[in-house]
Amino acid sequence: xxxxxxxxxxxxxxxxxxxxxxxxxxxxxxxxxxxxxxxxxxxxxxxxxxxxxxxxxxxxxxxxxxxxxxxxxxxxxxxxxxxxxxxxxxxxxxxxxxxxxxxxxxxxxxxxxxxxxxxxxxxxxxxxxxxxxxxxxxxxxxxxxxxxxxxxxxxxxxxxxxxxxxxxxxxxxxxxxxxxxxxxxxxxxxxxxxxxxxxxxxxxxxxxxxxxxxxxxxxxxxxxxxxxxxxxxxxxxxxxxxxxxxxxxxxxxxxxxxxxxxxxxxxxxxxxxxxxxxxxxxxxxxxxxxxxxxxxxxxxxxxxxxxxxxxxxxx
Amino acid sequence: xxxxxxxxxxxxxxxxxxxxxxxxxxxxxxxxxxxxxxxxxxxxxxxxxxxxxxxxxxxxxxxxxxxxxxxxxxxxxxxxxxxxxxxxxxxxxxxxxxxxxxxxxxxxxxxxxxxxxxxxxxxxxxxxxxxxxxxxxxxxxxxxxxxxxxxxxxxxxxxxxxxxxxxxxxxxxxxxxxxxxxxxxxxxxxxxxxxxxxxxxxxxxxxxxxxxxxxxxxxxxxxxxxxxxxxxxxxxxxxxxxxxxxxxxxxxxxxxxxxxxxxxxxxxxxxxxxxxxxxxxxxxxxxxxxxxxxxxxxxxxxxxxxxxxxxxxxx
Lengths: 315, 315
Prior knowledge:
Two copies of one chain form a homodimer.
Chain A: E1 2-6, H1 11-22, E2 26-31, E3 50-54, H2 60-66, E4 72-75, H3 91-109, E5 114-120, H4 144-163, E6 166-172, E7 174-176, H5 184-194, E8 198-201, E9 208-209, E10 211-213, H6 214-227, E11 232-237, E12 243-244, H7 245-256, E13 261-264, H8 283-286, H9 296-309
Parallel strand pairs in A: 1-2, 1-4, 2-3, 4-5, 5-6, 6-11, 7-10, 8-13
Antiparallel strand pairs in A: 9-12
Helix pairs in contact in A: 2-3, 3-4, 5-7, 7-9
């Protein structure tokens, strides 16, 4: 199969690219290198089945050309900076919602009809049902990021109904592992490198979060795509557990060998729109035979070790 | 209070404008007259508390200026042509989702924080629960129109959480009554004027639909805004009944005094993305003391009578 991976120089996209190449597929990475890293494609670029198109999704002509001969699109390109959404209120709309529409249009015009989409567990807002299943009560959005992803989901679903597309929508918890580029492990690691004696934590440290190791995430995505033939396929991806921010801090500091004094901003939320408890029901994907190989603790430690070996990432 | 009504020269917007003026409010209508009608504002324009800004939502400077001194925005401007969404796949995104973002940004920049939004019962897709309550299972979108409205809802919700807005989201069934500009009553009336002897109906005639009279719709909206003080307030608006397309055809033909031979395209849907059964649970708004004054049959007949008196609409 010939896959096109938008955001293929990013965290999940580059890991998926390597995986698809290892499975013998042809992969075209489409990336504008706004947040992507060339280093992530170093191995892939040695493979003759790999092709890189360096362009933005806004370059609709290039995007259309890129679709020719493609069988399946993984649309991973996105603004993933959930926390700072309020500082630039239109960025999520432009980079997530509108660019998803651009990808769908480029596909439609070129007869490409299968798409995998990285949505987010944040679309459940402050869920009333925990663990939260895919058919939880119609949620209220609490961040511009999640709102932009709900909008992307809706567009894909409408293309499935209207233009005979097949859509695979994955609502992720936060993903950890190799090439992890930002988020709490990154932030804490960076702060502790600068000052290993103290660590300031947003919120009260009791926010409950769920994480998934990137390799397990890829396994789940490929299991779903191999197994499911519905028009619209929606799956939560996560582990069957959660941790508190304090747990994660403990694992990170232990692995780094530091013993900082902890202080807290206080309150149940790290920032406006932060969700104090994300925990997804993953029964649906587990019923396909998938289960994660790594616990949250292992995923956090693997991430710390990856950053240790790639400190250029925090510079 | 000073209200700004986007789409104020449209069906629901102009009716709301007249209502707000009659209640003694100041009203600024903001309309680009793409689908709006000047005739709808004839009465309003005689009122000194009425002000018209003829501009498009894309004119962000004008929109920002228009927000100055406004207390509450009714954002009714939208592409409401549900059926032809597939012919112009980006129109709903541009006119509904992106323009909602423009309205929200203009409000934020000018300190206006209260918004009422016309969403749609179509956001429930092919609902699993009928009658469908506001907290129905997280739906799958089946039209670009509904997808664009879900996206607008999400944006408003995120602004409520992030920028301390207060949002009133109304998920309408189809609205009927004076100034009704398009939809099945309009289409059937027009066809029967051209040829009263036969009528071709999309679908099998058994699609179940729910309608609400525009006056009842306004009553409900104003009841909600007067009664509800939550950050995000979401209400279904509809009658406690539904009809089949065939019922509606019967009422229309009877009122017009014609007896056409009926023929059908067949199938359970009138078009791709058409929902064969829309029926909303309106318990939540009824609990506030509101109830509709007119049945679906009465609303259909009032609409036919309005078109009879305003045949310029179908020309």
